[in-house]
Amino acid sequence: MWYFIASADDEVRSYRISRVRNATLTELPSTRPVEFDLADYWQRSLSEFQSNLPHYRIVVRAAPRAIAWLRCGGYFARVEEIGSPDADGWRTVFLHFDVEAAARAYVLGFGAQMEVLEPLELRNRVLQAAKDTIALYTQR
Fold first, then answer.
1. Which residue of 48, 83, 97, 109 has the fewest CB atoms within a 10 Å radius of its CB?
2. Is the pTM of this model over 0.85?
3. Residues near 64 by Cβ (< 8 Å), separated by ≥ 6?
4. Could you give the 3-state DSSP secondary structure of residue 96?
5. Does pLDDT of 75 surpass 70?
6. CA distances (Å), 110 to each of 88, 91, 134, 138, in order?
7. What whole-number percentage of the chain has pLDDT above 70?
8. Which domains does the chain have, with CATH numbers?
9. 80-101, pLDDT tens digit by residue?
10. Which of 51, 101, 46 is nearest to 76 (CA)?
């Protein structure tokens, strides 16, 4: 992605080029402040952006068959760490998502091959979603 940096209302800002809908060429001069360091600005801007992104971390137990599919869930899951196998071959996995809804859908997609350990509220929501699914299928 391409960005341009400009000053607006005495504040330096980043603009994504793909979001620019219209531009007009003018005769007004453009000046770059002497003290402005583009590399420094970009690094600070990137760090600030990343620190403000949504963050939802979960811990699960994953069955041996699920391990190979952890990165294929399709819900922007970032695998942070995969522990050693326990006595049953299951592994503790630390995952990062932007939001809880994505984590819930991801875990539910693995069915009985994944168990939420943390956070407790996600574990309860996954359990309720599984109960709701069973109720739907047994009503017919």
1. 48
2. no
3. 85, 89, 90, 91
4. strand
5. no
6. 17, 14, 16, 21
7. 98
8. 3-51 (no CATH), 56-138 (3.30.70)
9. 999 999 999 999 999 999 999 9
10. 101
